[in-house]
Design goal:
Number of strands: 0
Distance between the termini: 48 Å
Largest sheet: none
CATH superfamily: Cytochrome c-like domain
CATH class: Mainly Alpha
Length: about 120
């Protein structure tokens, strides 16, 4: 009996985490041919897919408790956005230990210019 209760709690906890960070929104937007020529945006696309899409959704429109990044440029300057990525906020962890300054700038530009 105890094993079933523990197993049920594990399933419930896993489902809760999945609901909080689930990239089931639309797929990621395609970079245009012109954007593909910008290595910073190409890097940002990869960083976003690897580090951000799980919670913010592949299309950046938010998922669970992670907010939408649509029109992020209307809410934050590039510097403010990069600082937020570096130090985190609320449920978002800091990425200063995981990403270089160049990767942080690249993902911020991708979020602003592509999403």
């Amino acid at each position: 009996m105890k094993r079933r209760v523990v197993a049920a709690w594990i399933v419930i906890a896993g489902a809760s985490l999945g609901a909080a960070c689930d990239d089931s929104n639309g797929g990621p937007p395609e970079l245009t041919a012109e954007q593909r020529e910008d290595p910073v945006l190409v890097t940002g696309e990869g960083v976003f897919a690897d580090q951000c899409a799980t919670c913010h959704g592949a299309d950046g429109h938010g998922s669970g408790s992670a907010p939408s990044l649509a029109a992020v440029e209307d809410r934050y300057s590039l510097e403010e956005q990069a600082a937020l990525i570096e130090v985190g906020r609320g449920g978002m962890p800091p990425f200063s230990e995981r990403l270089s300054d160049d990767e942080i700038e690249a993902v911020a530009r991708y979020e602003r210019e592509v999403l």
